[in-house]
Amino acid sequence: MKRIYSVLVENRSGVLMKVAGLFSRRCFNIDSLAVGETDDPKVSLITIVSSGDERTIEQIEKQLNKKLDIIKVKTFEEDRCINRELMLVKVKYNRNNRRDIMENCEIMGATIVDMSNSQMLIQVCDTPERTSLFLKMLKGISIIEVARTGTLALQKCMETDK
Q1: Which of 86, 88, 110, 151 fits as disulfide partner to 32, beta carbons 3.0 to 4.6 Å?
Q2: pTM metric for this prediction
């Protein structure tokens, strides 16, 4: 079972290391990790995707809530949140495969953000599953380089939210 943890932390040096250390010491796996400043420069949001059985998932949340630098922990099930991942892919192209690459981009909502005579830099922002699918679609093409962010997630909007 997979869970997404949205962890608001104080934006200070060493906080990320403490959070990652918690996972390491207890042998919890981190599938994805993304960190960024919020609208308040004193606060950062760490988004962690982790998997394990129900007991492990419960333990992760309890352990995160014990840390002093952590302001708030939210746990999301995948169907109750919107999650996205950014991926940049640099591919080598030629006259024969150029059209195929552009069609794949159009189908997947990807954008060509840079281009030279023989290379394209493509940007995809979608769910982790769809970014992986796009990468599979490009397997027959010469992929030069790939960079992916970790998953970012927020809970879906609810009428009860204020």
Answers
A1: 151
A2: 0.84
